C-alpha cells in the first residue's frame, strides 16, 4: 500500500432538517477543500469511503450529505454509520437544525412543499422529519442551529468547525500579462507597469524576459518600481483579513505591461517573493510569456 493509503481521512456526514441549511453547509465544506457528494444512498456510503481511502483515489477530507428526501433508503444510515465506525477513518456528523417557525417561514418564502409532507401542511412535515431525525441528531458531533443565521453566518460557523489554518488564509494569485492581448477577465485588481522604462528597447535585453537576472535587475533598479512594490505589498497584506471577513477567499492581481514579457514578469516575480516572505499564500502565473517567446522565434 502506498503512502497515501496509510493516511487517515476525515469523513463528515452532513444531515439535518430540510430548510435548515444543509446544502449551504455542504457547499461551504466543498469551498474549503472537502470532496463532497449530495444525497448518496446510505448503503453506498461505506463503499464510497473505502474508495476515497485507496491510494489511487485518496481524498483527505470527504463529506456526504444525507436526508429524508431519499425516503425508505434513509433508514439504512444507522447501519452505514456503524460500518464507518469500524473503518480506519475519522468520522463525525454535522447536524443542521432550526426552529419550526423559522423553517415554516423559509418554505413559504421559496414556495416549496416539504419533502416529507408532500402536498400536506408544512408544519406537519417538519415535525414528522424532526422525530425521524432525532436519533441522528443525538449522535451528531456538531449541531448548528441556523434559526437566526443568514448564509454568511452559517459559512463562518462551518469554518470554525472544519477549516484548517491554511483554509483561513487569503489566496493571492498574481498574473502577469500583456495589454496587447487584453486584460485578464478574472483579475480583481489590475496594475499597469508601463510607468517603467521598457527593457525591450535596451540593447541586450530585448530577447530576454523578466525571468532573466539582467531584465529583473534593470526593472527593479528604478526607485518608482521599488516604491510601487512596497506600497502594493503593504496594501495587500493589510487588506487580506478584510477580504476574508467578507468571505472572499481569493484575490487575483493582474500585473501588466505592453507585451507581457519584461516589466510585468519582473514585477510579478518580485511581488510574489515579497508576499511569500510576508507569510501569505501566493500563486504566480505568466500568461503571455510563452506566447511572446513563440512569436519571436
Protein described:
With 297 residues, the protein is of the alpha/beta class. Helices cover 41% and strands 19% of the residues. It has 10 helices and 9 strands. Strands 2-3-1-4-5 form a 5-stranded parallel beta sheet, sandwiched between helices. Strands 7-8-6-9 form a 4-stranded parallel beta sheet, with helices on one face. The radius of gyration is 26 Å and the shape is elongated. The protein starts with 8 loop residues before the first strand and ends with a helix. The model is unreliable at 1-5 and 292-297 (pLDDT under 50).
Itemize the secondary structure elements and their pairings:
Layout: E1 9-16, H1 22-31, E2 35-38, H2 45-52, E3 61-65, H3 77-85, E4 89-97, H4 100-110, H5 122-139, E5 142-145, H6 151-162, E6 171-178, E7 189-192, H7 213-220, H8 223-245, E8 250-257, H9 263-277, E9 281-286, H10 289-296
Parallel strand pairs: 1-3, 1-4, 2-3, 4-5, 6-8, 6-9, 7-8
Describe this structure in a few short sentences.
This protein is α/β, with parallel strands linked by helices and 297 residues long. It is built from ten helices and nine strands. The N terminus and C terminus are likely disordered.
List keywords for this structure.
297 residues, alpha/beta, four-stranded parallel β-sheet, 9 strands, 41% helix, disordered N terminus
Amino acid at each position: 500500500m502506498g503512502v497515501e493509503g496509510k493516511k487517515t481521512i476525515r469523513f463528515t456526514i452532513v444531515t439535518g432538517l430540510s430548510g435548515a441549511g444543509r446544502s449551504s453547509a455542504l457547499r461551504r465544506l466543498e469551498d474549503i477543500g472537502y470532496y463532497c457528494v449530495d444525497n448518496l444512498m446510505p448503503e453506498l456510503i461505506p463503499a464510497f469511503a473505502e474508495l476515497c481511502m485507496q491510494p489511487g483515489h485518496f481524498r483527505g477530507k470527504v463529506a456526504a450529505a444525507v436526508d429524508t428526501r431519499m425516503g425508505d433508503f434513509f433508514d439504512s444510515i444507522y447501519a452505514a454509520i456503524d460500518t464507518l465506525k469500524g473503518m480506519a477513518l475519522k468520522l463525525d456528523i454535522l447536524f443542521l437544525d432550526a426552529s419550526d417557525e423559522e423553517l415554516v417561514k423559509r418554505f413559504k418564502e421559496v414556495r416549496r412543499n416539504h419533502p416529507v409532507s408532500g402536498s400536506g401542511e408544512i408544519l406537519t412535515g417538519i415535525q414528522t422529519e424532526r422525530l425521524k431525525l432525532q436519533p441522528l441528531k443525538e449522535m451528531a458531533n456538531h449541531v448548528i442551529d441556523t434559526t437566526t443565521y443568514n448564509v454568511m453566518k452559517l459559512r463562518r460557523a462551518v469554518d470554525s468547525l472544519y477549516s484548517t489554518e491554511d483554509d483561513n488564509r487569503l489566496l493571492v494569485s498574481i498574473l502577469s500579462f500583456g495589454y496587447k492581448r487584453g486584460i485578464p477577465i478574472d483579475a480583481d485588481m489590475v496594475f499597469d507597469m508601463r510607468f517603467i522604462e521598457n527593457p525591450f528597447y535596451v540593447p541586450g535585453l530585448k530577447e530576454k524576459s523578466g525571468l532573466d537576472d539582467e531584465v529583473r535587475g534593470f526593472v527593479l533598479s528604478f526607485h518608482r518600481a521599488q516604491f510601487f512594490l512596497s506600497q502594493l505589498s503593504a496594501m495587500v497584506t493589510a487588506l487580506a483579513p478584510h477580504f476574508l471577513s467578507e468571505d472572499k477567499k481569493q484575490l487575483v492581481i493582474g500585473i501588466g505591461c505592453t507585451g507581457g514579457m519584461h516589466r510585468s514578469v519582473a514585477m510579478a516575480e518580485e511581488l510574489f517573493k515579497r508576499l511569500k516572505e510576508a507569510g501569505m499564500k501566493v500563486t504566480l502565473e505568466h500568461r503571455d510569456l510563452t506566447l511572446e517567446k513563440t512569436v519571436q522565434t
